[in-house]
Amino acid sequence: xxxxxxxxxxxxxxxxxxxxxxxxxxxxxxxxxxxxxxxxxxxxxxxxxxxxxxxxxxxxxxxxxxxxxxxxxxxxxxxxxxxxxxxxxxxxxxxxxxxxxxxxxxxxxxxxxxxxxxxxxxxxxxxxxxxxxxxxxxxxxxxxxxxxxxxxxxxxxxxxxxxxxxxxxxx
Length: 171
What we know:
The chain is an alpha+beta fold and 171 residues long. The protein is 23% helix and 30% strand.
């Protein structure tokens, strides 16, 4: 097995071509920070499946489908959905400090079991934060992000009332 590195920060795991091998791009260790191991496996096998289909490689397509079938039951899922009216300008949602793109809101995403923290924030609003735990492989949880509460601007400092002596001299 050879591992080579490319300028894109992606390593490819080049196995000896054969019936039970797939050529998968392996992410560089620095690019996996905060990412689910199962998420990475799912994405790699999904990419391998797409390449196998495009290359018309039935043997590799079958293998990629088998590997996906093996991984899916081990994956836990979190779906983050902003509630009606919660998707305001500047809304950002993260899970474990990793951004969740707006196009992924409402779509279950793979995560490892264990504790996770979802945070929603927007300029001028109080952030929403919730801790959840995925206890078992295959578990699914949905986080509904409520409408964020606007932060009240600070009250202006009280203005001093004119003193009687200042009013008398002005007259």
